[in-house]
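This section describes the prediction task in plain terms. A model, or a person checking by hand, is given the sequence of a single protein chain and must write out its three-dimensional structure as a string of tokens. No templates, partner chains or ligands are provided. The sample shown here is typical of the held-out split.
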Amino acid sequence: MELASLFLKLGTIAFGGPAAHIAMMEDEVVRRRKWLTHEEFLDLLGATNLIPGPNSTEMAIHIGHRRAGWLGLIVAGSCFILPAMLIVLGIAWAYTRYGTLPQSEAILYGVKPVIIAVVLQALWGLSKSAVKNGILGFTAVAVMVLNFLGANELLLLLGGGALPGIIRLVRRQRAALPGLLWPLPMLRPFLLAGVPAAANTATAGSFGIWPLFFFFLKVGSVLYGSGYVLLAFLRSGLVERLGWLTETQLLDAVAVGQVTPGPVFTTATFVGYILGGAPAALLATLGIFLPAFIFVAISGPLVSRIRHSPVAGAFLDGVNAASLALMAVVTLQLAKAALIDTVTIILALVSAFLLVRYKINSAWLVLGGALAGVVTKVIAH
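The expected answer:
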């Protein structure tokens, strides 16, 4: 009950992305409740960075497991996800019912450029820690170029992690290759399911609820980095390859993920609803979050070994650099759909300035963008 109460609250008020979520958790479970020491909390945080999935959700799952065992693992993670999922379901229902009305279009007109600024600000912040040396800089540039040329995101992430790891192995002259490849057995079923082809036999235009579930299950199983990297996978899989979403719908899904609290991965809830209603929304949500529970359950007992592995650390550094590059590519692509006139460009620039200079919560900027969009459309008419 303690876990349920805490994480239902956090899932309702936790705006600002994974870093903000984790800061709130540290305040609650270390400073206020003293469930964990600072050292234990940092160990869990290090573990979440070495496995795929949404970092803040995985932190909630880890804390639940430490506090109340396997039942706590399920309760904490589910309660952190549930409020955001319900909010997104409500927004998705309104979007499918009223999304073509001028009022909704006006709101999204103002929100989209703000989202571009939010992503750019996250990109800039991550670059300071992700590109720490020349090897990682080379990795990031190479991933950007290959992604522009159409290379598969999953292979780029794995390759980006493997390059620094192999170089570390050569430099240390030690037989630590199993440490470098520890994530691959978990990824093998998804790699064999089809790369770059989808893990199902769906073709463009032929939507299916179970192919959608398996698509998000695969994404949740292999996605490193922040929730923004999710955009690259969604655009490649659901927009370009399967044709289930339009570019505009994808950007709208991102906007919904930003304006709501909790995990950015609830974007899957929105996508599922607009494609197949409530059943598809629930299955998409289950698919993208289920791997996080499994990975935490597996990696929890190995936290200390993973945290001190130099090869796993090098692999993670490379994956982070590759994730940063994918974020940069998808931001450029989405900007084409969002920055369509002088007003939207000004909104993006002002939002970026406020984020960088005054650290304003992105939720307030999104609400301000929505208001600016409505005002602009009213004046125009």
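For orientation: Residues 2-380 form one domain.
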